[in-house]
Design goal:
Layout: H1 12-20, E1 41-42, E2 51-52, E3 63-65, E4 69-71, H2 72-81, E5 89-92, E6 105-108, H3 110-119, H4 136-146, H5 153-160, H6 164-172
Antiparallel strand pairs: 1-2, 3-4, 5-6
This protein binds zinc ion.
Zinc ion binds next to loops.
């Protein structure tokens, strides 16, 4: 007689086996439960990169679906720290976009990220880099909205879900100077 501990319930196959042995384990949609997240990460020692095993986006960042699409490394950070990092960028100190080891991440502002990229001699050019939190279209829109001086940077920042500093730099062309 097997007990429920014999099955790996974090895996779909494990859950399926458990059901076959008569345990009442509910079915799970792919990627629907937060605890499934880590089953898609190749966890290694603290110092090594933990590569995302699931789908990646066009820039090589892991993509995780759970009530919307998330960047896997950001999701990892939010899961571990239990707080949102919306409006901040999560930079890979290891330069490996698939890595979900949160010890390899540094949370900062968009400006830090630009600085970091320039430092590493990587062309920092807006949304092509995949780390941008504003699209070119949004930056152009925001600049138009700001022109009549009715809305503040703070209001625009709130509207686009970024920090005030980022919005101010985007509107003034300190960031996104190429558009
Ligand atoms: Zn890494």
């Amino acid at each position: 007689m097997k007990s429920i501990e014999n099955f790996d319930l974090s895996q779909r196959t494990g859950r399926y086996q458990a059901r076959k042995h008569g345990f009442d384990v509910p079915k799970q949609k792919p990627g629907a439960k937060p605890h499934e997240f880590w089953s898609l990460v190749d966890k290694k020692s603290e110092s090594e990169c933990w590569n995302w095993l699931g789908a990646v986006n066009q820039w090589g960042y892991g993509r995780y679906n759970n009530e919307g699409t998330h960047m896997a490394h950001r999701y990892a950070y939010e899961l571990e720290h239990g707080k949102s990092i919306k409006g901040f960028v999560a930079m890979h100190k290891c330069d490996n976009p698939r890595c979900c080891n949160i010890r390899h991440l540094e949370i900062g502002t968009h400006a830090d990220n630009q600085y970091d990229k320039v430092n590493k001699n990587r062309q920092a050019k807006g949304e092509q880099q995949g780390m941008s939190i504003l699209t070119e279209k949004q930056v152009k829109e925001a600049r138009e909205k700001y022109k009549p001086r009715i809305v503040t940077y703070k209001m625009l920042a709130k509207e686009y879900g970024v920090c005030k500093d980022t919005m101010q730099k985007a509107v003034r062309g300190i960031l996104w100077g190429h558009i």
